[in-house]
Every structure is written in C-alpha cells, then in structure tokens.
From TrEMBL:
SMART domains: HATPase_c. GO terms for biological process: cellular response to phosphate starvation. InterPro entries: BphY/WalK/GraS-like, HATPase_C_sf, HATPase_dom, His_kinase_dom, Sig_transdc_His_kin-like_C. Keywords: ATP-binding, Cell membrane, Kinase, Membrane, Nucleotide-binding, Transferase, Transmembrane, Transmembrane helix, Two-component regulatory system. It is found in: Cell membrane. Pfam families: HATPase_c. GO terms for molecular function: ATP binding; phosphoprotein phosphatase activity; phosphorelay sensor kinase activity. This is histidine kinase. It is a multi-pass membrane protein.
Amino acid sequence: MILLFLRERCAWIVFFLSLLVVINGLFYLDIGLAGISVGYFNLIIIILFVMFLIWRYFKETTQLKNFLGNIFENNNIPEINGELLSPYQRKYLEHIVTILQAKDLRLNSMKVRTQEDTEDVLAWIHEMKTPLTAMKLMIEQVDDYRIKQKVDKEWVRINYLLDQQLHNTRLDTIEKDNRFETVTLKPIVHKEIKDFQSWCMEKGLGFQIDGLDCCVITDKKWLSFIVRQILSNAIKYSYENTDINLYTEMDAKGHLLLHIKDQGIGIPDEDLPRIFQKSFTGTVGRESFQSTGMGLYLANNAAEKLGITIFVNSKENVGTIVTLQFPNQNEYQHILGR
C-alpha cells in the first residue's frame, strides 16, 4: 500500500527534488553561505517533506477505508472523521456511487424477472401433472399388454423429466424446503424401483437388494430424488437381462454407504472427472438421444445440501457403482447448524 501511494505521488517527489536542486544551486552561487548551513537546511526540508507524505498517507488511507466501509450503507457520500471529502474526491466518488446504484437496480430487476420465470415454470409443471395423471389412468385401462408396457414406459420418462425440472427449479432454495427426519432406506428404494417398473420389465432387468433396513437422518423427499436420478442412469445404461444390486455397509469412520451397482456399458476413464458437470453427457451420452446430462449434476448438488457425498467407480463394458456416503452423527449436527 505504501509503495502504491509513493508511486502515485511520484510527481510530487520529482518536483520536490527538482526544487531542492535549484535552491542548492542558488546557495552554491552565494559564497557567503557555509556548507554546513546548507546541509542543515536540506536535512530539515527533507524531514518536513517526509513527515508531510506520512501525514497524507495516513489521512487518505483512513478516509478511503471508512468511505468504502460505508459506501453500500449510504445513498450519499458519507463524512469521514468529521470532515467532508475534498471537492475532487467527492465528485469522483459520487460518480462511482451512481454506477453502483445503477448496477444494484439492474440486479434487483434481474432477480425479480428470474423469480417470475421460476414461478412460471413451477406453475407450468403443476399444470402438466394433471393431464399426466389422467393419462396414467387411461394407460391402466389398455388391454393389450405390449402396447400398455410401451406407452407406460414413455409416460414414466415424461413424468421423470418433469420431476427433474421441478427439482432443478427448487434446488437453489433447498435449505428452505429441508425437513430432516429419521428415514428407512428400503421404502424409498422400493418406491423408486416400482416407478421404473415398466422400463425395467422392457429391458428384463432385475434387482438384488440387501441390507436396506438401516435408517439415516436426512430429508426424505430430496433423498428420493437423488436415488431416482441414480437409478434412472443405472437402468438406462444397463445391459438387458442383467441385475442391479443395491446394498449398504459401514466404513471405518462410521458412515453408512449405500451402493447402487449396475452391469452396463460403464463410463470411460476420461469422462469420470466431468460427470457431475451440468449438461455433460460424455462419450456414451452423445450416442444416446435420451441423455440430458442433468441427472448426476442435480443429484450431486442436492446431495451436497444434505451433507451426502457421492462417489462413482466405473469400468467400461463392465458396469458402474454409485455410492452415497451419509454423514455420521457429528457431521449431521454440523449440517443442522449451518
């Protein structure tokens, strides 16, 4: 800070030194002055100039710090230590405040428009739920089993995408929507599997479930959403007539781990570091029109809000294991305190 101050006052220093050289030149021409007197004069002048620079440094930096500390709390230029800013400083900083206030107005306007857009999307999704419910009832009345299964699969996909968009819209306000409670994993997993039943039957997929009677403290609705995204990917990329395994275990630090393992096409090593990025479909996704690149992104973001960590291990043409690591008791208390 001091070096920057001196650099900005370089013109002052050059002018002072130039003036001192001129004065010393005049003293040199006057042979009546003793050299020691000239030396004392130069020393006193230099000390006074240094003291002046120190005084200006502390005065200006103190004023600037106080001004910047209050600039967002006042509509007008504030007083600093009982003194007004100099006219030049006031004019300059008034212009800065005007720019900041204009930017603040634009930001508030954008926030209002964003909120309105969010509300419109939520209203549209809820409106779409009504005809979807009616369609589901109509599908149940179809007698031809093959047609019924194919139509139901497409209904599941539409409902899944709407639900994904609904939670995407609400993701930024998840803290306001959280309700932590003791949740048993088995009912949540069974419900999500049942919702994908027609899709699984078409591909001939089975499920091996083990050790899901344990409980965790989390938000039930958002945990269901996370499991839904992971199960959807497991079903989508599994080979036909294979099994998807779901099981739990405890790690060395007391974390409960929920593993979801499929036997499918897997994820290439070069894609693994980017699978949680928004809209990243990867090598496999680019070959499938069904991939949106949003599932793992949304699941990971929601999991972070709940204190859940997602790990993914995959081997190409073998399968993928997605692991949910739930917080232990101490970490859970920290989450509640945020």
